[in-house]
């Protein structure tokens, strides 16, 4: 119950923030979109145009579907409330100091690696469900299989690549984080650039993935409880 509540709240907040940026872009208010973007991700919005902001939102929706929703459900199913709280603590720590910086280089590196470990199962489940739930399963599978490993993050790669293929858009490329520029490989290079309308499409895909993940988590938790109860009964009988 706690995991489901946490995940639902995370998914609702994610969709709300993404749609707020999309609404600003749709109204032609680039300044408002730039002001709202930091609520979703840590990129520097000032140098971004409409297409780049839309791309940043779609990428953030994809990654946060894994981090804020599916990953929480996975760890809630595996370890209950302690697993859920521990996962979110690691995820928050990585968001705060995980990016490379001289001040937090060693501590940030450790936080990022720990986040990679705990985020691994949720990212794979998110990617798989995006392939199944997306409008183009074949395209999602093709791009995810081909491009996921090209991403510098072992967890963001599968998720963003599967979303890129499912939505038929091109993700990745040059990113700016507080004065630091990264040139990442393009995911789904054969697809078209992201448009403002794709923000809503990404939010809807995120919601479908989240609902499927909730079903998987509930089923997994139920099966786990049955197996534990059987083991306990056998132990008591044997004793």
UniProtKB/TrEMBL annotation:
GO terms for biological process, alphabetical: cobalamin biosynthetic process
InterPro entries, alphabetized: Cobalamin_biosynth_CobD/CbiB (IPR004485)
Record carries keyword Signal: no
One Gene Ontology cellular component: plasma membrane
Similarity-based family: Belongs to the CobD/CbiB family.
PANTHER family: COBALAMIN BIOSYNTHESIS PROTEIN CBIB
Protein known as: Cobalamin biosynthesis protein CobD
Source organism of the structure: Streptomyces morookaense (Streptoverticillium morookaense)
Phylogenetic lineage: Bacteria, Bacillati, Actinomycetota, Actinomycetes, Kitasatosporales
Gene responsible for this protein: cobD
């Amino acid at each position: 119950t706690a995991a489901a509540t946490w995940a639902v709240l995370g998914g609702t907040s994610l969709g709300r923030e993404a749609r707020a940026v999309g609404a600003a872009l749709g109204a032609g208010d680039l300044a408002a979109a730039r002001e709202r973007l930091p609520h979703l991700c840590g990129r520097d919005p000032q140098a971004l145009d409409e297409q780049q902001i839309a791309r940043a939102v779609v990428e953030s929706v994809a990654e946060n579907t894994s981090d804020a929703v599916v990953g929480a459900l996975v760890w809630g199913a595996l370890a209950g409330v302690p697993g859920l709280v521990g996962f979110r603590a690691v995820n928050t720590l990585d968001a705060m100091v995980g990016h490379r910086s001289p001040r937090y280089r060693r501590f940030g590196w450790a936080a990022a690696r720990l986040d990679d470990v705990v985020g691994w199962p949720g990212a794979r489940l998110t990617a798989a469900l995006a392939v199944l739930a997306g409008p183009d399963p074949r395209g999602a599978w093709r791009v995810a299989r081909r491009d996921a490993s090209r991403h510098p993050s072992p967890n963001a790669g599968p998720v963003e690549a599967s979303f890129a293929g499912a939505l038929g858009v091109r993700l990745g490329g040059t990113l700016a984080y507080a004065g630091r520029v990264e040139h990442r490989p393009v995911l789904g290079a054969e697809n078209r650039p992201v448009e403002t309308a794709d923000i809503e499409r990404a939010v809807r895909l995120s919601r479908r993935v989240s609902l499927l993940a909730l079903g998987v988590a509930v089923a997994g938790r139920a099966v786990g409880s049955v197996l534990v109860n059987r083991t306990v009964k056998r132990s008591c009988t044997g004793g």
